[in-house]
Amino acid sequence: MGSILCIEDDPTMAAHIAQGLQGAGYHVDIARDGQSGLEQALTGHHAAIILDRMLPELDGLAVLTQLRAAGNNTPVVVLSALASLDERVRGLRAGSDDYVTKPFELPELLARLEAVQRRASGVTGDVTRLVEGELELDLLARRVSWAGKRIELQPREFRLLEYLVRHRGQVVTRSMLLEGVWDYHFDPGTNVIDVHVSRLRKKLDEGGAGGIVETVRGAGYRVGGEPVAA
After folding, report:
1. Which of 7, 77, 115, 212 is deepest in the core (most CB within 10 A)?
2. Where are the domains of the chain?
3. Which CATH number does 3-121 carry?
4. What integer pLDDT is reported at residue 1 of this predicted model?
């Protein structure tokens, strides 16, 4: 098992989480405020991060934003008592890999930690890269390139592209993306998919891979396969 960083200012909650993680075989580092948590996240080598939403010194979303801006792609599970749909969407858009609302059960938190680590590894069996024409995804390094030129993507954008390429030639529906990329088993009724697809396309366009993600009107998106008439 790897090391988990828990950024939680409530000592009782932090101890509860640490005890559960240690019982599952993890080593646990604890930070009690956002600033020290960010510093530990940037300097340490953690398999995943548990990040409280409301923290002293630096808010959880600010920690997450700075972490991603620094190029750190460590999987992050946000913990929060803010359970509204808008807050969950804010957390996901800021770059979190999952969002767990308080109160929660430790078995669920452990399961979600395992899930985000599996998604971050991007490796199934012996597959370490995906190729679609000039597009290449290195699943170990979490890097994307087009004709050898690197394209910088955020973690969620990488997973979105990975999911589409793994399903090359298939029409991928909104429901499939919500479950496969966001781990949602319900439609949050927002444009979160449209926003991320738009950002992904912009970066692909800038990297020379324009048009590789195709919209299938009224159905979803597709990478590869026969062109669809407009």
Report:
1. 7
2. 3-121, 129-223
3. 3.40.50.2300
4. 58
Query: Closest by alpha carbon to 106, among 79, 74, 73?
Result: 79
- The owner of tokens 């088993």 is 185
Return the pLDDT at 127.
61
Closest to 120 measured CA to CA, from 159, 71, 177: 159
Query: Considering only the top CATH level, what class is 129-223?
Result: mainly alpha
Task: Profile the chain (230 residues) by mean pLDDT over runs of 10 residues.
Answer: 89 93 90 95 91 93 92 90 83 87 84 80 61 88 90 91 87 84 76 92 93 88 62
pLDDT of residue 122: 55
Cα end-to-end distance, the chain, whole Å: 50
Predicted local distance difference test score (pLDDT) of residue 225: 61
Q: What is the pLDDT of residue 123?
A: 44
Record the pTM: 0.55
Please say whether the beta carbons of 161 and 133 come within 8 A.
no
- The pLDDT, as a whole number, for residue 85 is 80
